[in-house]
Amino acid sequence: TATSIRSAEVLVSSPSRNFVTVRITTEDGVVGLGDATLNGRELAVASYLRDHVAPLLVGRDAHRIEDTWQLLYRSAYWRRGPVTMSAIAAVDMALWDIKARLAGVPLYQLLGGASRSGALVYAHASGSDLASLGDSVRARLEEGHRAIRLQVAVPGMGAMYGVAAAVAGRYAYEPAKRAGLAVEEGWDSARYMRHLPGVFEWARAEFGPEVLLLHDAHHRLTPIQAARLGRDLEPYDLFWLEDCTPVENQESLRLVRRHTTTPLAIGEVLNSVWDFRTLIQEQLIDFVRASVTHAGGITGLRRIFDFAALYDIRSGSHGPTDISPVGMAAALHLDLAIHNFGIQEYMEHQPLAGEVFRTSYSFADAMLHPGDQPGLGVDYDDVAAERFPYEPAYLPTARLADGTVHDW
Ligand code: GCO
Ligand code: MG
């Protein structure tokens, strides 16, 4: 029939960094795009899609989104995990894109329509010291941001997560096209925990009570350290403290929660609603950080957000530049439609990415707006993409002073 899937292509390109995109085309030529980018492990998902998923899609009805999701999830037998769930996510996004293009409406209309005028976003500010962090925050405020994530170098610790941009410019980010082997960074939790509260004390004094301040601890503390840091940060009224401790053990958040009222955000490395079961049911977090790209697409992420809504837990979608502009657009349509929206991360892509991905979302009044083009509102330029072939890149490794590998 007209809406049968004619082809499912996997497109890999690197305009500023690597992106994996799925393009599904129906018999009568309607095209849908999906994001399958898994930073540092991109080709695993590309192969999963090309070698194992695409052959299953050809001939299926593009309208059957839930059925396709369940088919890819259940018939693989091997469930969950970032590779599988990113592959499913990309197909799911592309099918929603097609359905909305066929209906002639922006995707959020099919998800229930707009629940708000736009999606409040938070921007990144970083510095190698307080002076440069201050400059970075002021630049974001001048752009119109109201919510800002602060990351700053810790004296004596050298390179570390989140402050690359402070050294190498606004768009530098892990892995910033570091071909070859992984870069090594140092880590010292005690120094970090001593330094950080003073940074937020300074920020509140400098920028006042209104600006929403966030911080990402990037999985590097033990539960008891996380509890202590959360408590020490309470006077500075953070919007959230993110990934305060690794989350393989969801129950470990019970300990953190008992000791601090600093709001907690977790979940960018989780991929399914089951990964959030304890966190949500026991109200151990305040914000769900999962992304549409890594958690099974619109269908998968909506399931998580709806479950979270039962417990007054809000969304806070992951949105670094390793989510492609397609994934970003999908996140925005969902942000606009759900009731329990909290905030959306927005780490602007480099202008180069815009040569391959033609987007229609826009920033105004501290919010992103998905725009009113039918579908996701993103087009892919094959000719431009040819200029940006895949480049191998790795995320950094963190080591303690004695050489022990630490969580990065
Ligand atoms: C964030 C994330 C990212 C991750 C990156 C890894 O909060 O934006 O922590 O910075 O490090 O997505 O690929
Ligand atoms: Mg994070």
TrEMBL record:
PANTHER family: D-GALACTONATE DEHYDRATASE-RELATED (PTHR48080), STARVATION-SENSING PROTEIN RSPA (PTHR48080:SF6). It comes from Microbacterium salsuginis. It holds the Pfam family MR_MLE_C. NCBIfam families: ManoateDhtManD (NF043051), PRK15072.1 (NF011654). This is D-galactonate dehydratase family protein. SMART domains: MR_MLE. Residues 130-263 form the Mandelate racemase/muconate lactonizing enzyme C-terminal domain. InterPro entries: D-mannonate_dehydratase-like, DgoD-like, Enolase-like_C_sf, Enolase-like_N, Enolase_C-like, Mandel_Rmase/mucon_lact_enz_CS, Mandelate_racemase_C, Mandelate_racemase_N_dom. Gene3D superfamilies: Enolase-like C-terminal domain, Enolase-like, N-terminal domain. It comes from the Bacteria.
